[in-house]
Amino acid sequence: MDLIQAVVVSEIKDSMDLLQRRVGGILKGIAVTGVCHFEQVDRVTAPLLICYAFGEHYYELKEKFQTRGRRVIGAELTLLPAGVRNLRLVPASVTLGVVAQHRRCANYFLSDIVRSGVMEHRFIIGTFDEMKDMPVDKFVVPEEMIAAVDRKGVSGEIITVPRTVSAFSAAEIINTALEVAMVKYRRKLAATPPGGITTAGA
């Protein structure tokens, strides 16, 4: 089967680049993976769009494009061991500000932190724009989003936490890409006139 086109959609360049690297590795041999800023997604013709599962625009993309016969997958991220270690080394008495581009993302990020066993701290969630007004000792930021943080007026150390695509999401991305590839292959066969395809040695 021919390679299909898959496009990673996001607002933040570093987040987009990280997800493209992860998804590109997952879909090696199945798809060519590109990137697109959310504001330009209408120009994209790829049959498979991938964004962050708990991002601000996931449901908007799904509602908009699923009805057009295109597939939208939300990639779920999970903390890497180095990220868990970074957080476990922080004293429990420290108040942590868990922040992301949007509150929806910050809420999910916090739930993933708690699932990793880091739960002794007092947590306050917020967005990057709210950081300067948050009463915390340290901030926790997804590593791929750190470039979007405006440090002006922000006091307190920033802890970056690396993440990767979860095993569940990786399986979903692969399965969906293979389904899309099969649809493309069947359409190609249907459009081929009789005798248009020969096999080696025929």
Task: Chart the SSEs and their pairings.
Elements: E1 4-10, H1 13-26, E2 31-37, E3 48-52, H2 58-65, E4 71-75, E5 77-79, H3 81-88, E6 95-100, H4 103-115, E7 122-127, E8 138-142, E9 157-161, E10 163-165, H5 167-191
List keywords for this structure.
Rossmann fold; 34% helix; 2 domains; 5 helices; elongated; alpha/beta; 202 residues; 26% strand; 4-stranded parallel sheet
Question: Can you walk through the features of this model?
Answer:
With 202 residues, the chain is an alpha/beta fold. The protein folds into two domains: 4-76 and 166-191, 3-Layer(aba) Sandwich (Rossmann fold), CATH 3.40.50.2300; 79-162, 3-Layer(aba) Sandwich (Rossmann fold), CATH 3.40.50. The chain is built from five helices and ten strands; from the N terminus they run E-H-E-E-H-E-E-H-E-H-E-E-E-E-H. The protein has helices spanning 13-26, 58-65, 81-88, 103-115, 167-191; strands spanning 4-10, 31-37, 48-52, 71-75, 77-79, 95-100, 122-127, 138-142, 157-161, 163-165. The strands form three sheets. A four-stranded parallel beta sheet has the order 2-1-3-4, with helices on both faces. Strands 7-6-8-9 form a four-stranded parallel beta sheet. The longest helix is centred in the last third of the chain and has 25 residues, at 167-191. It is elongated, with a radius of gyration of 20 Å.
